[in-house]
Sequence to fold (422 residues):
Amino acid sequence: MAILIKDIKAWQIIDSRAVPTVCARVELNNGISAIQSVPSGASVGINEALELRDNNPDFLFSKSVLRAVDNVNKIIAPMLVNQSPFNQFEIDNIMLEKDNTPNLSNLGANAVLAVSLAVCQAASKARGLELFQYLGGIYAQTLPVPFINILNGGVHANNKLDFQEFMIVPYGVENFSEAMRISLEVFNTLKNILKKKNLSTNVGDEGGFAPEFKNNKEALEVLLDAIFEAGYSTDNIKIALDVAASEFYKDGKYNFEKKSLSSEEMIDYLINLCEDYPIISIEDGLAQDDFLSWIKLTQILNKKVMLVGDDLFTTNPVLLKNGIENNAANSILIKLNQIGTLSQTLQCVDLAKRNNYRTIISHRSGETESTFISDLSVGINSGFIKTGSLSRSERTMKYNRLLYIENVLGSAAKYLGMEYFK
Fold:
């Protein structure tokens, strides 16, 4: 008997920021089923696929997603019943063609993605494979280097820090378990340091601490203190930043810390940070529409740090191709809900890898219990993952899934660490 999709059902659930989102269940005719849910972002690029919401001010603060749910149940489900779950690209294309807009504004990226991921999960279960094995086959062996957000700022926290994420990167170790161990030690050391300084140990949207620092450099100094007091050096652990510069870019100026910097001055500011601190990666160091400055920044720092485009590329192959052709950035953040389907995401990853752009599989600030991105990072050997801090279960579930995958792979598991940065 051919294995086919029997039924698809969606409903509204709650993400980690108390915001509604979409969850979908795909059932196959052999009794196997799979459930997947989609995240939502707070810092959203202008070119992202549309997250369809009801915009009813009298119901759930205009955030409900019942229209997207209806689109799954009434439009998408009838189209996909009796389709093979193993034809991922065909299934995704059916939804894209039905929507027929550049940004999925008819069906909603949240509706389409929930189904796309649930179909893939169901297919992996039908084959009797772990999801990462289904995605990558025998080549799926490499655990990603985690970018662990342990200090939150920007739109992710209620403090005065303008930069959005201050991350540790445990790259100078032999395996993923060791990377998590030393990161946990730094995280808890940082907590003790903040307590001694009478600073808040409350956490932001992504589970990192969100104390009141005077400026970005003070946050970096405390981060270094935590690394050293935990017994490690910058040979073991580096620092990564998500500047999220589009959030404070206005009228051609970067406005933060009572500064108003031109693009040239912002580039100089980032260069000086890299000289003063062990920074290995800068995400969205410049605004998404300051493209010529991205080219200049890349010319200067290309061989020194990862220059990661998030808002700049929004997991979009067309935007990435433009960046490649103009030598803007050297890495891309991969967020499934920025583009809308698994197939499009894989196409973007393929384009990046063929052009030597590093890929970081990423979560969103509004997350769910789904661990799909953990399997995706191993399945495509992305090399890097960014899924928040070491607190809040919607973050730690993804790390715990990677620890499980490492256990499943056993002696075949690889952790390249610093080799990825050469």
